[in-house]
Amino acid sequence: MNIPTVADVLAARKAIAGTARRTPLITSALSEQVEQDICLKLETLQPTGAFKLRGATNAIAALSDEQKANGVVCCSTGNHGRAVAFAAKQLGVRATVCLSKLVPMVKVKGIEALGAEVVRIGDSQDDAGAEAERLVKEKGMTNIHPFDDRNVIAGQGTIALELLEERPDLDTLIVPLSGGGLISGIALAAKAIKPDIRIVGVSMDRGAAMAASLVAGKPIEVEEVASLADSLGGGIGLHNRYTFPICRELVDEVRLLTEQEIYTGMQALYGMDQLVAEGASAVGHAAILSGKVQITGPTALIITGRNVDMQQFSAVIAGDAVKLGDVIVSGKDKVAVDA
Ligand SMILES: *Cc1c(COP(=O)(O)O)cnc(C)c1O
């Protein structure tokens, strides 16, 4: 198996310059509370509103002319699809994006606006993935995988280069974790530069496929359910090639959060740092405020994306109740309700 290296990440930085931007690193208001430097890497400021533009651009740029001519396809919880649509447009490549019905409308519209063809299919990320595979076989398109792809991982890893150039003293990186492309790229680049840096992955506690797979010692499937962190949904693939072995080797801790904790994290991200962002972006705040991650030195949180459903966001900020499958969360005490 050909695991990407920091050399691939350095090459990716050149390939994505001009499409994905270098994002700011700002100080969080959490710093005062925990009496330690907490900084926020604002991937929300990418042109597509999420870090996934880095990996998608690197992967599409690496295609042969023949592959480019046949077009690209992907499945996505939303942000990867938008990134593929954006990068494909810039490079003059046709793109088809397969989305399950769990993907919020705001993300569907964003992808269509970029000129990509959208296919809405099934009730899970796996269903969307199966459709993408079908289009590869039927039309000879190239599948740009949302995380289990060397070039995607290397692209996401460019975040770590920027972080450690700006703050070589960082002790811990707290990274939202789903399929693991982001944390794999970050971990392999960061640990090549600074071997003792601590890498912490954070997911929701319902449907966290990578966390469950790490415990099981092999990729396993979990049921996908509605979450405030909708971008963290989806499996890691039973035939996972890269992100599972990289996470097993390089991720130091994985922490799981309740929906109520993510809700509180979203309120803090907005209330303390005035950032409008997705639930997936608020898991760092949630992990610190819940005490599930101990702060041991200067820490960076990756604020991964801003493509939030505004109605849901407004409800969270107002402290109103939000229903996610069989769980209801609100600004007051947690109310757990059976279906
Ligand atoms: C995709 C995504 C993640 C998780 O990235 P993985 O590479 O799948 O682990 C986190 N936050 C946002 C906003 C995303 O779009």
UniProtKB/TrEMBL annotation:
One of its GO terms (biological process) is L-serine catabolic process. GO terms for molecular function: L-serine ammonia-lyase activity; pyridoxal phosphate binding; threonine deaminase activity. It comes from the Bacteria. InterPro entries: Ectoine_EutB (IPR014333), Ser/Thr_Dehydratase (IPR050147), Ser/Thr_deHydtase_PyrdxlP-BS (IPR000634), TrpB-like_PALP (IPR001926), TrpB-like_PALP_sf (IPR036052). Residues 19-305 form the Tryptophan synthase beta chain-like PALP domain. Keywords: Lyase, Pyridoxal phosphate. The keyword GTP-binding does not apply. Its cofactor is pyridoxal 5'-phosphate. Gene3D superfamilies: 3.40.50.1100. Pfam families: PALP. PANTHER family: L-THREONINE DEHYDRATASE CATABOLIC TDCB, THREONINE DEHYDRATASE, MITOCHONDRIAL-RELATED. Belongs to the serine/threonine dehydratase family. This is Threonine dehydratase.
